[in-house]
Amino acid sequence: MMRWVRRALIGRPLHNRELAHEKLPKWKALSIFSSDALSSVAYGPEQIMITLVAAPGIVAYGYMSPVALSILLLLAIVVLSYVQVAKANPGGGGAYAVAKKNLGEMPALVAAGSVFADYVLTAAVSVSAGTAAIISAFPELSGNEVTLDLVVLFGILMMVNLRGVRESSNAFVIPTYAFLLGVVVLIGVGVWKSLFDAPYILPAASMAKQQLDWAMLFLVLRAFANGCSSMTGVEAIADSVPMFRSPEARNAAVTTYWMAGILGFMFIGISYLIMHYHIMPIPEVTAMSQLAEQIFERSPMYFYIQITTMLVLYLAANTAYNGLPVLMSIVAKDGYMPRYLAARGERLTFSNGIILLTVAAGLLIVAFQGNTEHLISLYAIGVFISFTVAQSSMVVHWNRERGAGWQFRAFLNGLGATVTGIIVAVITATKFLYGAWIVLVFIPIMIYIFKAVRAHYNVVADQLHLPEESYNQGAEVFPKGKHIIIVPVATPTRVVYNTIRYAKTIGDNIIAVNIADNAEAEKKLREKWQLWDPGVELKIIRSPFRLLMRPLIQFIEKKEREKGPNDYITVIIPEFETSKPWHRFLHGQTGLFLRNALIWKTNVIVSTVPYHLKE
């Protein structure tokens, strides 16, 4: 039954040779890896506006235009310099991989921790923003934000991604392009109306700018920092170069340019419309909803934009699902994360990484109650730290390679590193008290975890490597020793019969051990054992306090002390398996507890002989 459910949910296993069919063409990759960046226009410009009008009595709305243009210029610099990362690192891994190659361990781990934080926030913010979009259109759903977020996160995004890259691209490509169409129509019609169809007359003071003093500068910089949330997701393509069709690096670069051009057009268009129609914050109504209603009223086009916005924001989390598991697999191969994160699952996806991302994003959503504005306060700092590390790494790379045109490329990456480094400082200063401190604490914790995991693997490797004396020695290297077999028994049954029969195949030194709490029970067992006569010594230990585990373990420990240095003790536990899972609750779990207690003993091998009941 469970196998059928598993197949229905995630599909049949895929053969290794089918991996090539899971790679993506550029037009599909755009919807998969750019949905986060492209969908950010639904909340990025809005966050600028919300910040500028947050302080009562301060006229700051007019600063939205220079802030938006600054972010557009920043996008151009980052994209031009970040394309170099994809070209120079076709194996994927983005900032982590190039930093490890050019700057060393610590900068690489800083990048890995930063990108991990950014991707988890991407999933949480995108899903929360999607729910906010649909609640703007259907206010009756208000109050169920966290439930809706978790249903989408676990029930849709995780399950679709567990089915594989091709499945997720097929599911997400239509909503992404439908959203792009809706936004282009919204901007086109909105700009047309603003220019030719009875332009909206703003109050004279509405676009005024208060003098730029220190308080106003801080507010403008914080608006800029919040608007930089539109830049997240730019790194996803460089992290996932191997998932493109050949030639991977070139296709990744072209897709990055496509993404940047579309994002820049939509970002500046939405920002212009927000300023033109003087959109202000309204509780539980997004700026996109206000714009769509202002331009199309409550027509079918309004609901089309809201629904496609909701879908693409939900699907924007898919950028994290395609970027982070790949990155974690690379970090895991280097020994800084659990090894199982590097293994592909049945559907050729990094399924363990997908599950880890889902759980982490779900915890964030619950912790912040699905509040997009609060989650945004944590956003962007991680990705800009990784931008800075990546661009700095590329400067070292070009200086080392010194190929054709390396000076220009080094300058481009140097400019990108300088600009994004300044942005890190701005975001840290302006958003520190609003939640950025959480990310700044989280990244060092992740670095500590990375190094602890690597240290553990190094210690394990040192202890598990073959002893030097074993090489070129053949069978002579194995010392001679005895094998002592201990079988805990309660009373002679078919289960004990099967266990004794198995024990006799691996050795003759067998001891059956019983724990009896009274003389009568001991007498009855001896009589049954003599009648059966399996040819095995029976040792009965009296336990007047009715303890079972302690006397048995003490007996095993005594045998362990008495054995020779090359001898081994094997404890073979008889167990029967019930035909129905709930039947197990009707029986004691002595075998399970004994196995868990003995597994830590040196030179004690624990084995179980199961007997399966038919009814």
Give the helices and strands, then pairings.
Elements: H1 2-10, H2 26-33, H3 35-39, H4 44-52, H5 64-88, H6 94-102, H7 105-137, H8 145-162, H9 165-196, H10 214-227, H11 236-239, H12 248-276, H13 287-296, H14 300-333, H15 351-367, H16 372-376, H17 381-401, H18 406-464, E1 483-488, H19 494-506, E2 510-516, H20 519-532, E3 537-542, H21 549-562, E4 568-577, H22 590-598, E5 604-612
Helix pairs in contact: 2-9, 2-12, 4-10, 4-12, 5-10, 5-12, 5-17, 5-18, 6-7, 6-17, 7-8, 7-14, 7-15, 7-17, 7-18, 8-14, 8-15, 9-12, 9-13, 9-14, 10-18, 13-14, 14-15, 17-18
General description of the model:
- This protein is α/β, with parallel strands linked by helices and 615 residues long.
- The protein contains 22 helices and five strands.
- The protein has helices spanning 2-10, 26-33, 35-39, 44-52, 64-88, 94-102, 105-137, 145-162, 165-196, 214-227, 236-239, 248-276, 287-296, 300-333, 351-367, 372-376, 381-401, 406-464, 494-506, 519-532, 549-562, 590-598; strands spanning 483-488, 510-516, 537-542, 568-577, 604-612.
- It has a five-stranded parallel sheet with strand order 3-2-1-4-5, with helices on both faces.
- Strand 1 (483-488), helix 19 (494-506) and strand 2 (510-516) form a beta-alpha-beta unit.
- Helix 14 packs across helix 15.
- The chain is elongated and about 105 Å long.
